[in-house]
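Let us practice reading a record.
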Amino acid sequence: MDAVEKAGSGHPGTAMSLAPAAYLLFQRVMRHDPSDPSWTGRDRFVLSAGHSSLTLYIQLYLSGYGLSLDDLKGLRQWQSLTPGHPEHGHTAGVETTTGPLGQGLGNAVGMAMAARRERGLFDPDAAPGTSVFDHDIWCIASEGDIEEGISHEVSALAAHQRLGNLTVVFDSNHISIEDDTQIALSEDVVARYEAYGWHTQTVDWTQSGDYVEDVEALHEALEAARAETGRPSFIRLRTIIGWPAPNKKNTGKIHGSALGAEEVAATKKILGLEVEKDFQVPSDVLGHAREVVERGRAARAEWNTRYDAWREAEPERAAEFDRISSRRLPAGWSEALPTFEIGSSVATRKASGEVLSSLAPVLPELWGGSADLAESNNTTMKGEPSFIPEEFQTKDFPGHPYGRTLHFGIREHGMGAILNGIALHGGTRPYGGTFLVFSDYMRPAVRLAALMKLPVTYVWTHDSIGLGEDGPTHQPIEHLWALRAIPGLDVVRPADANETAAAWQVVLEHHDRPAALALTRQNLPVYEGTRDATKVARGGYVLQDASDGQPSVLLIATGSEVELAVEARTLLEAEGITTRVVSMPCVEWFQAEDAAYRQSVLPPSVKARVAVEAGIPLGWREFVGDEGVILGLDHFGASAPYRTLYEQFGLTAERVAAAAKATLAKTGADKGETTGN
C-alpha cells in the first residue's frame, strides 16, 4: 500500500491479496537460493500478472535477493530496480519481462519445455525425479491472463506436451479494471483446464462465508501439484482483491490505483500496524523471512553434491553443458554450413532448411519447429525426432519427450511466447516458423524478445507478393518495415541461398538479440560473392560493382529483388551507365557499421540511387536521399502467379533501369545530346 501511495500509481490490490500465496511459494515451496539467482538447479517463478509487480518485488526483498526497502520506496521511478512491470536482466530474481497479459503464461510453458529438453540432452537415463536437471516452473496468472487468447494456445499445448513440471496458480478475484469480471467473463475456467487435460484443484478462501486465508490448504494443493508429474497443474485460488482494506477491497478501484491516505490508515489499523508509519518491516519479521537464504544454500549444496557426481560420471555431457549454458559455439561449427552452386536456382526457404539439417549434428542446442507449416517453412531438421509424448507421435513425425522438432500447431501467438520462455530458461537456441504475414500474430512476443535481448530466431517464409496465387491476405506488404521498427530486432532478408547460409551463421554468432529471417517461396539465382559471412554481417555490401569501379548510379535491393537489381545493372551497363548493385540483407547490421564503411558502400558523391523491395517504401528514403527513387508497393497484392504480379506492379528489371535513369536525370547527370544545329 505504501509503495503505490508513494509512487502515486500502481496496482496494490492483487499484491495485497496474493501476499500469502507469494510468501508461501518463496518460503516453503520453491527450490531457490537468493544468494545465487542464476543457480542452474533452481525452480523458476513467473509472475504472468506482471501489473502486480509488488507481488514479486516484496518477496525478492523479504527473501534477500538484494532489493532494499529503498528500492520498494522507488517503485515506478526513474532508474529504480522496481519498474512498473518486472524486467528480466534489470532486477535480480526476475525470470522474465511480463507486460502484456498472457505472455508470462506462455513463457512458463516454454520454460517447462526447455527443462525437459535440457534433461534429455544431458541426463536422459536418470530415473524420474532423480536428475540434477529436474526442477519445477511456478506461475501466477490473473483473470486478465486467462481472458487473453494466447492463454488458450499455450495451455492447450502444455497439456498436449504432458508438462508435469509446470504449475499455474490462477488468482480468481473476480475483479479487473472495469470492476466485476462478470461483465465480460463467465466461463468455468477450471472446467476449461480440465478439458485441456490439466490436473486441476480449487482452493477457495471465501467458501466458509467469511474470508479465511487458508495457507495450509494452498500448501497442500501446491504439493499435490508438484507430485503430479504426468500433467501440468492448475490451481484456482479464490481471493478477495485488496483484502483487508475496509472500503475498497473487492472493487475495481483497488486494482490499478492508490488506496488514498484514509483507506491506507484504516487498513493499517485492521492489520495492527502503526497508522502514522510507512514501510513498516519489524526486524524480527525480516530476520524470519531471510532464513530462506540458509535453506536455499543448503538445498543448493545438496544439489551440488549430486551435480558433481553427474559431472564425474558424464564428463563429455558436462563439457557440452558448460558450452551450451554459456552460449559458446563449438570450434569449427560453421564448416558444417552448406555452400550452394553459383548459377543454380534455390528458394531461400529451402536453403534455410538445408542449413538447419546441416547444423543438427554440430549444434545440439539448436531446436525448433513451425506453427503447422513445417513443409512450407522448411523448419524440420532431417532425421531429427519430434519433441512429443510418445503416444502423440505420428507416421510422418516420430518422436519422444526428449526430441528436437517442435510442433506448435496453428498457434502463432503462443509460439512466440513459448520461444521466449525456452530462451529465458537458458542455453538452448530456439527457432520458430510461420509465414511472414502471420508475424503480426507474434508481434507482442517478438517485441518482448527484443526488449529482453533473447537469442530467438524467427523463420518467416513467403516473404512478399512472390507468394503468388494465395492473394493479398497472405502477401506481406507492410511487415518488413513494421518489424524493422522494433528496436533490437535484426530483420534479415537474404538475396540467395548462399546469403541465407551466411545469414544463419551471423545470427547464431549473436546471443544478445532476436533475429528474423524473411525467406522466399520462389527460387532465386545464386550469385558469386554472397557466401562470405563477414560481408553479410555488415548488413549491406557491394555485390556487383560498376564496370570501371566508379558508379554513376547505385541500386540497393534486398531478398528476391536483388535479382531485379542485377538484371537492371546489365541493362544499364550495356548503355554505358556505370552501375553498382548493393545487397542489403539487414538494415540493422548496416546501420551499426561505422560511417566510413557505410560511405564506402554508398558513396555520398553518388546521388543517383534506386532502392527496390517488394513492400512499402517506408524507410528507404534514408538510403536513397532526396534525389533517389524507391520502387516498392504502397498497396496490397493480388492473386496471380508471382511473375505476373511483379510485372503488373512494376517490379521488373526494366522498371529498375528506368528508375535509375530517372534519378540520374534528377541529379543532373543526364546531359542529353546536341541537336546538330
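A brief commentary: The radius of gyration is 28 Å.
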